[in-house]
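In the previous chapter we treated chains in isolation. Here, by contrast, the input contains two separate entities that must be folded as one system, with a combined length of 422 residues.
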Amino acid sequence: MFPASYFTKMDKLVKNIRIKAEKIGRPIRLMELCGTHSQTIAEYGIKKLMPKNITLVSGPGCPVCVTDQSDIDVVVSLALAGIPVAVYGDTMQVPGNVVSLEDARRNGADVEIVYSISEAVELQKEKPSLVFFGLGFETTTGMTAWAIKNGLTVYSAHKLFPLAMEALLANKKIRVDGFIDPGHVSAIIGTEVYQKFKIPQVVAGFSGEDVLVAIDKLLGQILEHKFWVENAYGILVKKEGNKKALNLIDEVFEVSDAKWRGLGEIKNSGLKIRKKYCLQDAEVVHQKLIAKIKKDIRTKPSACKCGLVLQGLIEPKDCPLFRRVCTPESPQGACMVSVEGSCNVEYRYGK
Amino acid sequence: MCLAIPGKITAIKNQLATVDFNGIKKEINISLVNARVGEYVMVHAGFAIEKMDDGYAKEMQGYLGHKERRV
């Protein structure tokens, strides 16, 4: 149970937000970049607490959602070709041009779900040809780097978070007045990297109060017609980030171009495994097979609007499939699969 | 995917630490941080991703101490 003082604090924050919103007097769109923030916002009903002129939109912070379809298709096809694969659980149901990992497993493919990549390192001792599907942002990349150094073979779809922010800001169709920066990505990369973005930003933790503090601070910056990076998660996030993790990432990975669902190809936004570790790079080990898989993939037409949802261009309910044919039990796209996906969150908490 | 929980390190053996999450103890990989016994870390997918600062540790200890006094 929350103590009564907790709600008093929340009430006070909501009141401050209302006062600031009224003073600003124009429509404001704030984007939470991390899927876990979207989850908090839904869980606490924060959208309903917002004044009329404040809109909260979700950004591309759900790692499973932004993973490009081709990467999913490759891992599914590897599994179907008889190569054991290990994945984080939230990728299992993503539908693909081939099938989902879940369907591949039902058809006899060896697909292991792990909670932690260290389980995959152990599994590889029994199954030497095991391939781990490495995806996500800086929060998980350090762990993948550790696992590669400890002998794991990986198919890397890892991405660099700030590059997605850059792509969003470059797209003139997307109007955002401030970012709630991700808490745990920032624990790794620090806050300095955000300073190049000329927009109000607050790095926030994941409680309801943390998110309200972030919104209040963003409105404060907008009211003053200024922008800077405020760190409201100082108990964890440091200006320079986690150097040990960053060094490990740099030792194992190098920057490469990467495809994102919704955002398309973004230059220098991905991480590929350095040559030094090429014997553990699935793209090198299974080069010929992957080339054949990519050549053979036929894109199935789909009305799924996940790509637009990820950029905050439309709301999940604007998608013709949402709630009608697309549900968490029968997801038609990645945004409905992951518990951090905007469509999944909206399905569970919206109405 | 970025859901993480803070816990206190109670023992360390090589890269693995025993971390106490409010009474539940788990083995956590601490290869990504320079942490010592008694410090608080944020844990995600079996790994400590960063140390919590001293202020947080004191707040937690104060809270737990307060609770113990009440009992």
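The mean pLDDT of chain A is 94. DSSP finds 17 helices and eleven strands in chain A. Compare these points with the single-chain example from earlier in the chapter.
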